[in-house]
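Students often ask what a 'structure token' actually looks like in practice. Rather than answer in the abstract, let us consider DMT family transporter, a protein of 304 residues. Its sequence is given first.
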Amino acid sequence: MPPSGRTDAGALPPAAIALMLLLSAVWGLNMVAVKVTSAGIPPVLQAGLRSTLAALIVPLLCRPLGLRFGDWRRGGTLAAGVLAGALFAVEFIALYIGLSLTTASRAVIFLYGAPFWVALGTHYLVPGDRLTRAKAIGLCIAFGGLVLAFADGLRAPVGPDALLGDLLCLVGGALWAATTVLVKASSLRRAPAALVLQYQLIVSAPLLLLASPLLGEAWVIDPQPLVVGAFLYQAAGIAGASYLAWFWLVSRHSASRLAAFSVLTPVFGVLAGALLLGESLGVGFLLAVMLVALGLWLVNRPAG
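Now compare that with the structural description of the same chain:
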């Protein structure tokens, strides 16, 4: 039985759906933030510095919210926490290398196959979070809407290493899913969300900072105000507040239903790009959003 206050089975309550919509919008804007920050900080170094700063910020966020950390020396969470942090680091390394080899549209499609991996993992490893027919159909429809939203970009010419880039982005999505399933299927499920997040930040920070020079990145930072602002948004808003909220949700609700909402993230990213960077929207974008919404409704229908 899940601990008191945790309701893993059944459809997501309205409050959880509202929070996931907010998180998807925040993560969608993060795509723009990463792009802006990359103009002044190399990507893997950026991820390492983000984890480092977020690890310092999270305790400051927890105090006013009354969130506790628990004791990492008890509860048997250390091994699972270290593994989660390692998965988190390798996910970003695979994603950033993949992005450099393939197009952004193709990267999005392969990365956001993650909800399928989460649904399969929880089906076999997490009691009460089964992959029903309605959930499977909903995931397919939502993913179809995502493909439609990026259809124009998928037709763009690609380089000779695009297939390798696609594969790395697929691996990144699978590792993202593996981390989510690990949190639900291991002792981390009983740990406070703040402790789960700190494991990932503290373990991933040195791994990412070590990987940066090994991947040939020059540690040269151009601290333009826009770059610094976008980086702080990532560290405090994304790796700090939003991930803390995400792990709080994962500890209490169906991981597969929550993960399905992540397909909205690139949709919000497109909208953010249109509003902030002046990027154009494809003709089928509205239809794509409708398909995603329909798919999410099917995923979140109560099992009957």
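One point worth highlighting: The longest helix spans residues 225-250. Ask yourself how you might have guessed this from the sequence alone, and why that guess would often be unreliable.
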